[in-house]
Amino acid sequence: MTQNLTEQELVRRQKLESLKEKGIDPFGEAFKTTHHSKEIFDTYKDKTKEELAELNIKCIIAGRIMTKRDMGKAGFMHLLDRDGQIQVYLRKDGLSELDFGLFLDADLGDIVGITGTIFRTNHGELSVKAEHYHHLTKALRPLPDKFHGLADVEERYRRRYVDLIVNEEARKVAFTRPRIIRALQHYFDGIGLIEVETPVLQPILGGAAARPFTTHHNTLDMDFYLRIATELPLKRLIVGGMEGVYEIGRLFRNEGISNRHNPEFTTVEAYIAYSDMPGMMSTVENCIESVA
């Protein structure tokens, strides 16, 4: 199948071949880091330029190139790692000829590693002065425009991984969600409930009024449904004597779709034996207070 490649994509593929000719794997190898950007900022944000020079702190970082400025015998770039962006300063006389050449040929979106020293620029920005440049992964497609990001809302939701690269708010949501899950688990565990996993494939629908996704089990020669609710299996566990259970699980409802309604979503459901409506209301209120 032929691909209709843009000029940028063709140039990036030429650079990929150039890396191979230099004996460099375009898609990298294992690379161990010592720091993330947040750790550097949190630890050294109060250090002056002179204090950092005296400390001479070595670090190894890695990330995706988000900006790049070539000024002839020197250059700057910003790397995006798990926690955010950090500036890297590169000098021709501070790197090998190969390393500086790799920097000059690099494209936005490439993933690289930097071995260097933490310092503060004359403008006061906490940065890393590169001593070694490690190519890790060649990006064959350009990033979205840095000023507008993914402007198409539908494209943002279809390509969430790209949105994570260019949208700081999307990154915050992605990293906050698992913290919320941990907080929910901490609360329910703390009041003595047992976390369970109930079947996703169910032979009979129940627990809600919704249109299901249907699949077929070949060995049993039966149709099964992706669950539309966790209610009935959880209640059966209460009948079985577990007394207090909860599940944070995926549900599937074959209905409308929008940026506010996804056919696949996560719910939290809990059941407690010997409780009543005021008791469950108190449980929910305390849960929200604890998680917040």
Strand content: 25-35%
Strand neighbour order, sheet with most strands:
1-2-3-5-4
Low-pLDDT windows of residues: none
Radius of gyration: 26 Å
Class inferred from helices and paired strands: alpha+beta
What would you note in describing this structure?
This protein is an alpha+beta fold and 292 residues long. The chain folds into two domains: 7-137, OB fold (Dihydrolipoamide Acetyltransferase, E2P); 191-291, Bira Bifunctional Protein, Domain 2 (BirA Bifunctional Protein, domain 2), CATH 3.30.930.10. The protein contains nine helices and eleven strands. The protein has helices at residues 7-21, 37-44, 49-55, 97-105, 153-158, 160-166, 168-190, 231-239, 277-291; strands spanning 58-70, 74-80, 85-91, 111-120, 126-137, 194-195, 201-202, 214-217, 222-226, 244-252, 264-272. The two termini are 52 Å apart.
Quick structural gist:
With 292 residues, the chain is of the alpha+beta class. The protein has 9 helices and 11 strands. α6 (160-166) crosses α7 (168-190).
Name the descriptors:
11 strands; five-stranded mixed barrel; BirA Bifunctional Protein, domain 2
Helix/strand layout:
Blueprint: H1 7-21, H2 37-44, H3 49-55, E1 58-70, E2 74-80, E3 85-91, H4 97-105, E4 111-120, E5 126-137, H5 153-158, H6 160-166, H7 168-190, E6 194-195, E7 201-202, E8 214-217, E9 222-226, H8 231-239, E10 244-252, E11 264-272, H9 277-291
Helix pairs in contact: 6-7
